[in-house]
Amino acid sequence: MKTYEEWLEEFRKKIKENYEHIRLDKQLAGYVYEVPKPATVLPKGSGPIGAFSIVEGEPLPEPYVFSIQELLLKT
Length: 75
Prior knowledge:
The chain is an alpha+beta fold. The protein has one domain (4-70). Helices cover 33% and strands 16% of the residues. It is built from 2 helices and 2 strands. The protein has helices at residues 4-22, 25-30, and strands at residues 41-46, 65-70. A two-stranded antiparallel ribbon has the order 1-2. The longest helix has 19 residues, at 4-22. The chain is flat and about 70 Å long. The termini are far apart.
């Protein structure tokens, strides 16, 4: 008959195995190496990010400004 510690260790092992099985970060990171040419223009933004509730009589929140940033790649 199994003890509580043995059941718990078996449960932990199964959780860790399944967690490693369903992780996507390693799969998605692999796509980085498949890009034929790195991007030289990236989106750049400034200002607060998020949803705001606008209350009557109060000033509007600062707008989020979207622009682009060109990268200088060393070759």
